[in-house]
Each structure stands twice: as C-alpha cells, then as structure tokens.
Design goal:
By secondary structure, this protein is mostly beta strands. The chain has one domain: Jelly Rolls (Sandwich), CATH 2.60.120. The chain is built from no helices and 13 strands. The strands form 3 sheets. Strands 3, 4, 6, 9, 11 and 12 form a 6-stranded antiparallel beta sheet that branches. A 4-stranded antiparallel beta sheet has the order 5-10-7-8, with no helix packed on it.
Length: 166
C-alpha cells in the first residue's frame, strides 16, 4: 500500500505500492460478430454489445475493440466507428475510414482501438461497438462476405488504493 506522510505540510516519505496491489484483471467479457452488415446512415449501427458489472467504484474498464471486414461501395461515403456506454462514455476511432472522392470500391482490413474508462459505479454497464456513415451517402459495410470478426473485449482492472497519513 502506498504511504505518504506529511510533516509540517512537507512531504517526508513515499513508499511505492508493493507487488500485487492494484492493476489486477478481475473479470473479462468478450464478444464477436462476423455477420456482414451494410449501412448508408449516419445513425450508429450496433456491432457487438456487452455487459459488465464493476466490483468496486475505483476499478477501471479496459475496452479493446476491432471492426473487421471494412468495405465501401463506389460512392463518396465513408465510415466511422465508436464504442459507447450510451451515457457518459463515447470514444470514436477510425473516423473517415476509406474517405476519398473516388468512385472505386475500397476494402480495408480492420480498425482497432483500446480505451480505459473509469465508470465510478458498481452498477451494470453496457458497452456497444458501433459503425456508421457520417456522409449519409453510399454504403459502408463491416464483416465483408461474413468472413471477418469484429470484436469487443471488456476487462475490469482493479483500482489502486492510496493511504495518506497526517
């Protein structure tokens, strides 16, 4: 446990966390989707949704996600991806995937990201991986030919405890 002591408002000693305190993976939830899905809409389309219930309000959720089998048809449309809890957390990644003014079909392997969220709750959280077409023009697709898996993994990471002694 980290111990910080203050004497006359000055820092006199700091002891680092001993091995094994904080940072442990407490639970892992994972899901995938390999279904080809197409949209021309700027309204986010769900790819994978997962629930996780943190054990402590000080714990973090490590979010690891990947959208695979990305394709755009022969228009000016382009893709954006995000992961959200539908409330206080939304992180976009891969915005403007395949953005060109060309008229050729385009394919891209995948867009991947990871985020650390501090939900500060012990209530169940639902995280959803999504994709959409901000241009509202043309079609964008994930899971090209049903041969690629988009994935979402949630890991609860134990928070760290600090003790301050005066």
């Amino acid at each position: 446990m980290a111990i910080i002591t203050l004497n006359n408002n000055s820092l006199s000693s700091v002891t680092a966390l001993p091995a094994g305190v904080g940072g442990k993976v407490l639970q892992v939830v994972s899901g995938k989707n390999s279904t080809e899905t197409t949209t021309s809409s700027s309204t986010p389309q769900n790819i994978v949704s997962l629930n996780i219930t943190p054990i402590s309000t000080s714990n973090k959720i490590l979010i690891i996600c990947g959208v695979a089998g990305i394709r755009r048809d022969n228009t000016n449309g382009y893709m954006a991806t995000q992961v959200t809890d539908g409330a206080s957390f939304t992180e976009k990644f891969g915005h403007a995937i395949m953005y060109t003014a060309g008229t050729s079909d385009l394919r891209l392997g995948s867009a991947n990201a990871s985020f650390l969220h501090s939900p500060s709750t012990t209530s169940q959280k639902t995280y959803t991986l999504q994709f959409f077409n901000p241009a509202n023009s043309g079609n964008v697709t994930i899971g090209d030919n049903n041969e690629c898996e988009s994935t979402l993994t949630l890991m609860e990471i134990e928070g760290w405890l600090y003790l301050i002694v005066f």
